[in-house]
Specification:
The complex is a heterodimer of chains A (468) and B (63). Chain A is α/β, with parallel strands linked by helices. Helix content of chain A is 38%, strand content 11%. In chain A, the strands form two sheets. Chain A has a six-stranded mixed β-sheet with strand order 1-7-6-10-8-9, with helices on both faces. Chain A has a four-stranded parallel β-sheet with strand order 4-3-2-5, with helices on both faces. Chain A starts with a strand and ends in a 14-residue tail after the last helix. In chain B, the strands form two sheets. In chain B, strands 1-4 form a two-stranded antiparallel sheet. A two-stranded antiparallel sheet of chain B has the order 2-3. The chains are: A alpha/beta (468), B alpha+beta (63). Chain A binds chain B through residues 226-228, 230, 376-380, 382-383, 413, 417-419, and chain B through 4-12, 27, 29, 31, 33, 62.
Chain lengths: 468, 63
Amino acid sequence: MTGVLSLLPDGRHGLLGAPLPGAGLPGVVESSDSVAPSGGEDLARYLAEGGYAPLPGAGQPGVRAPSDPVAPSGGEDLARYLAEGGYAPLPVPGLLLDRIAAAGLRGRGGAGFPAAVKLRAVRDAPGRPVVVANGEEGEPGSVKDRWLLRHRPHLVLDGLRLAAAMTGAGRGCVYLSDAGAEQAVRRALAERPCDPPVDVVRTEHTYVAGEETAVVRRIDGGPALPTAKPPRPFESGVGGAPTLVANVETLARVALMHARPESADAVAGTHLVTLSGTRSRTGADAAALVEVPAGTHLKVLADLCGHGRAEAVLLGGLFGGLHGAGWTDLPLDHDRLRAAGGALGCGALHFLHPEDCPVAAAHEAAAHLAAQSARQCGVCVSGTGALAGALAAVARGEADHDTTDRLRRWSEQLPGRGACGLLDAAARIAGSLLTHFSDRVDAHRGTVCPPCWATSNGEGHRFTVPVP
Amino acid sequence: MKLLLDSTRCQGYGLCQEPAPELIDLDEWGYAQLRVGDVPPGDEEAAVAAVAACPNSALRLVK
């Protein structure tokens, strides 16, 4: 039920597949059938009404399903990948690193840290580095990493090989929890063994399992739970070695920037995003995995999956908080979303229908985070529990001014106090609800809100998007 | 000197705060919350005492 769409200008190479020369504009084909029938605005109608005016600086966006990079056998076609310039030799690793720095590629796991800075830090740290392709996406609203591993394992492994060359690593690792992803990666490794040798490490699928110190701890044989920082993995990671933990989309972009040097800036300035929203009454879920140029307005993305009339958006999976009035003008951009008090995170956007309730969404998100706490940090156990409990009280109409005062105080005092970002996410959910929807919070006092009532035991299931 | 708190180890004993109230607060659940990262000149002894007071080695000092 999740569509896969490319919004890149014709001819531009992306991660969802090779470009389709001459693909009509707008040629709308869906690789699966979920984009339109949500009961909301659908894409074909939007286009017919003159939607999709060119974005400034974004060229002529086309909307199309990418050509399928998946071979009939189910895996990525190695012969085709090689023919498109995959696995090309890298005689001077420093040149690719300079290209990555010049293009300003930022990590796609959530923090948006400059990729070249991380690569150099690992390269320059004492010891023989380890490189890790992190494919464990704990955000329930994100599917891009699992999609990439299932459908483009060679692209990711190529990026891992290049990262190893740039850092001088003697060992690589693909870290994942998804069974389909594991199968695809193992098949790709059997087809074309990697140099340096690459292990596949299976983990559990939890919110925190993809956090970089949890990744290191799991690969070293421990539980997939975060540790206190410092040290960070680039200083002391797997087996104590300097370790690059890189998101699989970041690595896929590195591989594409190597194969297509002329497009490096465009590749670095492009995002995979997962779009989802309030389900319709029929249960149909308009969700999509979309590749889109940075700077695209969120309204364009909402329209794409039938959520153009959304009242609010939850940014960055559960990490970037809720945004209300004015969300349509927000651009898909790390720095500008941060300046607006949000976060792009892993690029997952969840749109709330006008008949939905932001209090219900905030409560359900906080309850999910509280349930997903690693229960290592006392402040996280107490803090997420308190936030979720107070939001539940607001949702039930039982909150008073003291409740909202406490929520405000916690949203300011709790960020940064846990070993990972989970507590920060829960605090931001509460803080953004009070900032953007104080009237809605007030209106809940002493009343029963139907959407809140309907989702009172949801624990975050509404945010889960099926992998296409 | 920098005072670091490993929040996975803090059990909320609260013993660190007594020798170093300028450096450490206790939150409403009793967990330590650093007031500063860098230890101000003159507070080094208090920082050392706070580190020593924790029965679970949640605090450490780095240069």
